[in-house]
Amino acid sequence: MSKKNKNAQKPTPQFIFQKRNYLFLFIGLAFIALGFILMTGGGSDDPNVFNPDIYSFRRIRLAPTLVLIGLGIQVYAILLNPNKNKK
């Protein structure tokens, strides 16, 4: 029969992401949320009246750019290795 070593230490569970990863994840999430907030509005109360404000710079260029930057930050946060030794 095998004997179990009572003094053997159990491996401590380690998280995949560290504090730095979560910081970048939340920054990316904030960019995405801000982009979607900037996309809202611009509609018309009366469906027979056209509102040209729906084609503003903020809704067509700025907001989608912020969403894409946020997604890029999310990818960077996932691929970031905080344990990498700096030379």
Automatic annotation (TrEMBL):
UniProt-listed InterPro entries? DUF3098
| Entry keywords, A to Z | Membrane, Transmembrane, Transmembrane helix
Superkingdom, according to UniProt?
A: Bacteria
Q: Where are the transmembrane segments?
A: 21-42, 62-80
Q: Return the Pfam families for the record.
A: DUF3098
Q: What is this protein called?
A: DUF3098 domain-containing protein
Species? Flagellimonas aquimarina
